Amino acid sequence: MITIKEMANMLGTSTTTVSNVIHGKTSEVSQAMVQRVEQMLEEYDYVPNISARNLAQNKSKIIGVAMKARKDKYENFMKDPFTGELVGSIEAAIRAKGYFMMIYIAEDIMEILKYVSTWNVDGLILLGMLDDESIKIRKKYKKPAVYIDGYFYDNVVECVNIGLEDKKGGYDMTRYLIQCGHRKIAFLADNCIGVDYERFMGYRQALEEENIKFEEEDFIMIRPGEGEIASSLNEIYRLAKKYTAFFCVSDYYAAMVMNYLKDKGMKIPRDISIVGFDDNLFGRTVRPALTTVHQNVSKKGKMAVDILVDMIHGKEPENRKTHLPTRLVIRDSVKKLTGEENK
Q1: What DSSP designation does 60 have?
Q2: How many CB atoms sit inside 10 A of residue 66's CB?
Q3: Is 115 left (phi over 0), alpha (psi -120 to 50) or beta?
Q4: Beta bridge partners of residue 145, listed in sequence order
Q5: What pLDDT shows up at residue 220?
Q6: What is the pLDDT of residues 76-131, one digit of tens each?
Q7: 73 and 190 in contact (C-beta within 8 Å)?
Q8: Are 140 and 119 contacting, i.e. CB atoms less than 8 angstroms apart?
Q9: How does strand 161-164 pair with strand 219-221?
């Protein structure tokens, strides 16, 4: 490839002039020279060496995205509509800021640390980390970092986190079910940590306020592994007769449970009401249309990038912890009960 120095010699001008035209700094270059340089760039199909320029500026113009995924839940983490929408919004925001994205997904936090700590990236976005994991990350990674949906102890103040009003969303949905006459409400999830725990706590709070007793069996654990999901769904079908409503921790599980119960001959919401959380593609396409809790996933991703880029440029965020709002989306999967149907 032709060099800037070679072009400057051929044009009888300085390397500074050629470099200025390449980078759009033409205010002090004659129009005739601009045209000559641009003609030569086109003739030799010149491509600027971005890596060399960034190295000289001690910046890579790359933002890393690290995600912790459960292999027992997803063979391919990117198939999940929440993850796909989030990563898409992050990539678009990173590109709009003039950066590039590197992504690493693993189940083991130590594997993530092994690779992320060696990346030459200007900043890092991390998804789904817990308090002890954030401490390990901070020991290894010293550049700016923003977490999405991280859940930390109150004394972990160094982390910048973009989260959601998960507890309020769980509370609002449970209150809605109660207002529709439901008192036998089960909560379905595959764990009770992080966002799932917060949504569960909102569910529990709403029950307590209405003096509805919670029993341990009202938390139905979904086992998402390939060899366990069938037996897990069959157990849910067996338990469905005990409840009038299922509150699923995500639209993904709500759609899965709804379809399984329908295949078993149950009618939704005649036989049981089902609600979800996220308002993603599953909730909008399943039938009956799913009543759920909406969250703005794309806003999460864009906000994380905006804050991180500001941090890369030396600007500290005004708020280190942000909780985006939720709202109910009422569709067709909840039946309003009479008092007799709760007996």
Answers
A1: -
A2: 26
A3: alpha
A4: 124
A5: 97
A6: 667 778 888 999 999 999 999 999 999 888 888 788 777 777 778 899 999 878 77
A7: yes
A8: no
A9: unpaired
Q: For residue 244, what is the DSSP state?
A: S
Please return the burial class of 22, using the count of CB atoms within 10 Å of its CB with bins 0-12, 13-18 and 19+: middle
Of all residues in the chain, the percent with pLDDT exceeding 90 is 59
Question: Which residues, given as ranges, of the chain have pLDDT below 50?
Answer: 55-56
Strands 62-68 and 123-127 come out as: parallel
User: Cβ distance 326 to 294 under 8 Å?
Assistant: yes
Q: Which residue has the tokens 């003039």?
A: 98
| pTM (two decimals) | 0.80
Characterize the bridge pairing of strands 123-127 and 145-148: parallel
Instruction: Residue 15: count other Cβ atoms within 10 Å of its Cβ.
Output: 14
Judging by DSSP bridges, how do beta strands 219-221 and 123-127 pair with one another? Answer: unpaired
The CA-based dihedral angle spanning residues 74, 77, 79, 80, taken in that order and rounded to the nearest 10 degrees: 80
pLDDT at 340: 64
94 vs 309: CA distance, rounded Å: 9
How far apart CA 343 and CA 244 sit, in angstroms, is 10
**What pLDDT was estimated at residue 311?**
94
Q: CB of 230 within 8 A of CB of 184? A: no
What residues pair up with 161 in beta bridges, in sequence order?
147, 321
Residue (of 204, 212, 208, 256) closest to 234 by Cα position:
256
pLDDT at residue 287, rounded to an integer: 94
